[in-house]
Write a structure and sequence with these properties.
This protein is α/β, with parallel strands linked by helices and 347 residues long. The chain folds into two domains: 173 residues, 3-Layer(aba) Sandwich (Rossmann fold), CATH 3.40.50; 154 residues, Rossmann fold, CATH 3.40.50.2000. 43% of the residues lie in helices and 16% in strands. The strands form two sheets. Strands 2-1-13-3-4-5-6 form a seven-stranded parallel beta sheet, with helices on both faces. Strands 9-8-7-10-11-12 form a six-stranded parallel beta sheet, sandwiched between helices. Strand 7, helix 7 and strand 8 form a beta-alpha-beta unit.
Length: 347
Amino acid sequence: MAAIARYAGARETVGHRVCFLGGDGQVGDVLVAEGLADRLGLRGGWDLIGLWRLARLLRHLRPGVVHSHTHALLPTLVALLMLPGTATVYTENSPRALRPDWKFRLLYRLLSRVAARFVALTPTMRGAMERYGAPGARIEVIPNVCAIPRAATAPGRRAIPTIGVVGRVEDQKRMDLLIEVLGELRRRRIEHRGLVVGGGTRLAGLIAQADRLGLGQTVEFAGEQNDVVPWLDRMDLFLMTSAAEPFGITALEAMARRVPVVAMPCPGGLADLIERGGLLLPDRTVAAATDAVGGLLQSSEQRSELQARGQAIAAEHTVERIFPLLERMYLELAGSPSPPERQQAIA
């Protein structure tokens, strides 16, 4: 989001404004400080003050396109009521869309009638959106941007390798499985370190689990970080254990930094990414993950092959490649294929 906002700001065709319904966290802080975003402080879907702020902002900006990334029903309705006739785009980012959910059935019933376009992050997510009723003719597959710079060279071999992950420490990410894999590596006497970058409601439990498995001095918990590059550069392997993943942006960022990526299979678009640029495990067992990680730590040739594949995939997701796809869609929906003035899109 930050990369797109900055890149769009330098374009002469589309003005781009980010609107955070909540916006808590370091990314929100940075974009608001740079004047690239508005933060409404919404404290839930029924926060009337936050919804009023959203209505006032939309009335003030009068964008030509509204690109929504939220599955909250009331903010969606506010945008539709405040800007009748304005083109609406919806991108699906929620893992809840990968299972039956009455709220999403209701949301898609509404959006299928009013949304001009739907954006799927991967072909697999396109299928999930179609199952909820999104018309296939209105779905475009546009992946996420990898905003961090690609590493110029591969890191040298370290005496003690580090297996890590970046992400929110929540139930969906199943980082407890990562800790179990590290514990099994310890049981097999394979020397290593662990690194978990991210915060969340399950962080305390994850730390306690590491202590129970005797990993208290082995695993580092770095918390939420605004710049993940130096943390990724400390990793020798990146292991994703998510239970569901619409895209897997942190895996793509690891590929950009030449960190070999290993992932457990799960519903969503992660497999679309990993099958081309990483190692997709045959199942979600700790044994299979430990075998794969242990084998990679012993094979510099396999790691190099994964690094090369991952770099090639990351190169396909630069802001210079992805934003023109969004820009073309915005201009088409705004009815201005070659506008003399900047069109405004709000995300």
